[in-house]
């Protein structure tokens, strides 16, 4: 098979399973490869497909293929033959794609990843003297790469090895690669260079170990987030071929940190009877069922109870509002849960102004409980399905009478913020023996704090550390005001915002209804108003066909009203048919959006080297400025705002326009980063020495300042946690500008304006007009790595 020297790795993903009936636990992982790589073709292979392929394409290898005792060895051989023939990407089904993989493939002809270093210390690897292990669970190559023939030669020789790891698996792959590299470096000229095998570090594809997965450590959101920061994908090491009953699901921790305090004078244990082996737990939910906008949250809270894994439970719902004559939201929510062990108790306020206090309502719930244990169950929070099971398990193991969480999750849906709380007794998580439960004071808020204080003095209490069991949600209608929750944000043991918040929430969404909750939260008025602003999205494009499907997908996810959203493109100097690609989609785009403009202008600029080379910056940015100005003049009509977006962004939040508008500034940019978290847009900066002129004149090249990274400039990563900061320069990856500023003459100078050009020049020109540009360091968007 001919190896093409400069051909890219095909945008083709291969996966295999025994039949087309993929187990449910792997289906979400399978969808992650399809959903996050929209420009790729997906091909699924069954065992029967593989058998036919080997028969037709490699009949000489049939004796080897059919001679393996272990089915996994046949799959190993098949993946090698498939990639040798078709090229593309192979990924095991227990692999989850976390972000688009283009950045892993660009400019490479063969890609393989290293397993975590810890795997090299396991017994089998140590016996073979392997200090590192290449893993075949993810492989990518061009068709006919010479490594495949080298591997197949060695594989045939190793076919009788008793251990599949040596016959076809990672140990064979590792040894063959070492031999291949030695041979390749002995070859002179370009032949050795073009046949490169790129070996990626573990943090990109294998960020966690087998033990991390099997011990339940991934249930810890802080560990998960740290492990996944640079990862494009994660392998869960299910080992369906050697672990009985393996199948992807979130594994609960084997061990839980817990602290016990005993406030009883004699330390005696109150005996507790059980029903059918497990004590009945009464979950107590107090609600005002007809509060505006809360019906959806009620339904999710009741559904969270219905999905609990602890079997012997009931939900007592106490409501101080009378039932509506028809379509009562509370009764509809109870019916929708289709859970038989839910009881509704309606109470009268007795004519009291303001109704019963929250403390009084909680006491009524306790009085109606049938269980030997009671558990607080608020009507607007999220509960992991194993909350009751894990709290009851720890309580029993500690011989305690009450159990609390020492930390829980706090989520701000409208702000893309998520935190692991500080360490304390979180009263809302209380599970307690009903016999020792103190009465709640008649308070309208803070009623549960005295109850926990009394329990600490009179009962044996265990505090456990498993934050994911309970997610407290800050939605704007909470009992406490926003300042209270800002204090919790500052005191949190871990904080996630922007893209990291979304990444952790996506992981939690495998067990919690995160998106349904987000939809159920009443909209924030400022955000709703922002969605009514007329917004023009402008994007210059060149050779953009690989990026446009994702670009349009992200646009389609925006929560801005499409009837208030206009688009404008200017294409120039493309060689890949970008203009025709967009022109073909104009009808469907114009059906969806307010206005769509497609312009074309060629400048004849096609540099051979990288676009960041210093010697072409002046010319490149001059032409980009001219393109922006031409697009602006041809597309701007009556819009209120202009949002400049790069075509090669790979992710940003659906509420990006609303959050930029909420900043209340005339010019504002988010923090644009690479997939690994590093700042990408270095045109957004603040000068470190503004009083002294800011820039070193030695960094002036071709009339514009081009300092080395960090020389005299601070980028947005230096201001994390500061909310909003003034800037001296801005980039154009996502740049919001009040449209009237453009109408008043603010443009992208295609010449040196006080040493700055294009977007940086716009910021300096705006300063001359008395307008400051601002940056949002914690609002992150992600740019392709190329």
From TrEMBL:
Gene Ontology cellular component annotations, sorted alphabetically: membrane
Protein name as annotated: Glycosyltransferase
Protein species of origin: Azospirillum lipoferum
SUPFAM superfamilies: Nucleotide-diphospho-sugar transferases (SSF53448)
GO terms, molecular function: mannosyltransferase activity
GO terms for biological process, alphabetical: mannosyl-inositol phosphorylceramide biosynthetic process
Domain Glycosyltransferase 2-like: 297-406
Keyword Transferase: yes
A Pfam family annotated for this UniProt entry: Gb3_synth
Native organism taxonomy: Bacteria, Pseudomonadati, Pseudomonadota, Alphaproteobacteria, Rhodospirillales
CDD domains: Glyco_tranf_GTA_type (cd00761)
InterPro entries with a match to the protein in the record: A1-4-GlycosylTfrase_dom (IPR007652), Glyco_trans_2-like (IPR001173), Glycosyltransferase_domain (IPR051706), GlycoTrfase_DXD_sugar-bd_CS (IPR007577), Nucleotide-diphossugar_trans (IPR029044)
Domain of life (superkingdom): Bacteria
Domain Alpha 1,4-glycosyltransferase per the UniProt entry, residue ranges: 143-239
Keywords: Transferase
């Amino acid at each position: 098979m001919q190896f093409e020297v400069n051909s890219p790795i095909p945008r083709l993903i291969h996966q295999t399973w025994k039949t087309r009936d993929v187990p449910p636990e792997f289906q979400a992982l399978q969808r992650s490869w399809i959903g996050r790589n929209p420009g790729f073709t997906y091909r699924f292979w069954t065992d029967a497909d593989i058998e036919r392929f080997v028969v037709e394409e490699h009949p000489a290898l049939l004796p080897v293929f059919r001679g393996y005792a272990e089915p996994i060895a046949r799959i190993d051989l098949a993946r090698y033959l498939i990639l040798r023939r078709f090229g593309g990407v192979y990924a095991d089904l227990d692999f989850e794609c976390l972000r688009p993989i283009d950045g892993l493939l660009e400019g490479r002809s063969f890609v393989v990843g290293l397993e975590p270093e810890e795997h090299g210390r396991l017994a089998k690897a140590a016996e073979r003297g392997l200090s590192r292990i290449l893993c075949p669970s993810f492989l990518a190559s061009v068709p006919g790469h010479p490594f495949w023939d080298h591997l197949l030669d060695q594989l045939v020789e190793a076919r009788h090895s008793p251990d599949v790891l040596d016959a076809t698996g990672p140990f064979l792959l590792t040894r063959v690669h070492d031999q291949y590299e030695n041979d390749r470096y002995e070859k002179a000229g370009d032949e050795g260079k073009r046949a490169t095998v790129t070996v990626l570090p573990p943090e990109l594809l294998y960020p966690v170990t087998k033990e991390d997965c099997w011990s339940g450590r991934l249930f810890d959101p802080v560990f998960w987030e740290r492990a996944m920061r640079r990862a494009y994908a994660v392998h869960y090491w299910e080992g369906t071929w050697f672990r009985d009953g393996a199948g992807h699901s979130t594994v609960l921790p084997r061990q839980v940190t817990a602290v016990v305090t005993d406030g009883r004078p004699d330390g005696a244990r109150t005996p507790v009877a059980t029903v059918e082996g497990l004590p009945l737990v009464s979950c107590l939910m107090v609600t005002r069922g007809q509060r505006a906008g809360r019906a959806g949250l009620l339904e999710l809270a009741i559904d969270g109870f219905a999905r609990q894994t602890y079997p012997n439970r009931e939900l007592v719902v106490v409501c101080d509002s009378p039932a509506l004559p028809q379509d009562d939201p509370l009764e509809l929510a109870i019916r929708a849960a289709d859970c038989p062990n839910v009881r509704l108790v309606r109470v009268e306020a007795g004519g009291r102004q303001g109704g019963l206090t929250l403390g009084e309502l909680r006491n009524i719930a306790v009085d109606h409980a049938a269980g030997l244990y009671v558990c607080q169950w608020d009507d607007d929070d999220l509960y992991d399905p194993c909350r009751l099971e894990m709290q009851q398990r720890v309580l029993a193991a500690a011989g305690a009478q009450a159990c609390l969480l020492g930390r829980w999750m706090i989520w701000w849906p409208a702000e893309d913020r998520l935190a692991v709380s500080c360490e304390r007794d979180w009263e809302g998580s209380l599970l307690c023996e009903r016999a020792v439960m103190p009465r709640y004071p008649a308070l309208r808020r803070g009623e549960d704090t005295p109850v926990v204080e009394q329990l600490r003095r009179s009962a044996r209490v265990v505090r456990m550390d498993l934050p994911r069991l309970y997610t407290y949600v800050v939605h704007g209608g909470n009992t406490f005001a926003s300042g209270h929750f800002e204090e919790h944000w500052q005191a949190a043991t871990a904080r996630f915002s922007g893209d990291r918040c979304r990444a952790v929430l996506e992981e939690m969404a495998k067990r919690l209804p995160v998106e349904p909750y987000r939809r159920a939260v009443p909209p924030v008025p400022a955000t709703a108003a922002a969605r009514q602003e007329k917004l023009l999205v402008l994007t210059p494009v060149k050779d953009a066909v690989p990026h446009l499907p994702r670009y349009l997908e992200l646009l389609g996810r925006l929560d801005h009203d499409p009837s208030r959203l206009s688009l404008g493109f200017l294409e120039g100097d493309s060689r890949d048919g970008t203009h025709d690609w967009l022109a073909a989609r104009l009808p469907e785009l114009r059906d969806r959006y307010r206005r769509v403009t497609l312009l074309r202008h060629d400048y004849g600029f096609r540099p051979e080297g990288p676009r960041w080379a210093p010697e072409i910056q002046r010319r490149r940015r001059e032409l980009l400025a001219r393109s922006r100005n031409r697009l602006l003049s041809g597309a701007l009509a009556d819009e209120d705002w202009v949002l400049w977006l790069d075509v090669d962004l790979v992710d940003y939040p659906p509420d990006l326009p609303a959050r930029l508008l909420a900043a209340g500034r005339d010019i504002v940019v988010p923090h644009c980063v690479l997939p690994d978290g590093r700042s990408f847009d270095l045109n957004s900066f603040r000068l470190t020495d503004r009083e002294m002129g800011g820039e070193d004149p030695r960094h002036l090249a071709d009339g514009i300042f081009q300092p080395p990274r960090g020389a005299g400039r601070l980028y947005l990563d230096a201001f994390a946690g500061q909310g909003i900061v003034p800037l001296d320069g801005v980039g154009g990856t996502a740049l919001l500008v009040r449209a009237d500023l453009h109408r008043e003459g603010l443009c992208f100078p295609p010449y040196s304006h006080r040493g700055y050009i294009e977007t940086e020049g716009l910021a300096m020109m705006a300063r001359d007009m008395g307008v400051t540009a601002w940056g949002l360091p914690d609002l992150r968007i992600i740019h392709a790595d190329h």
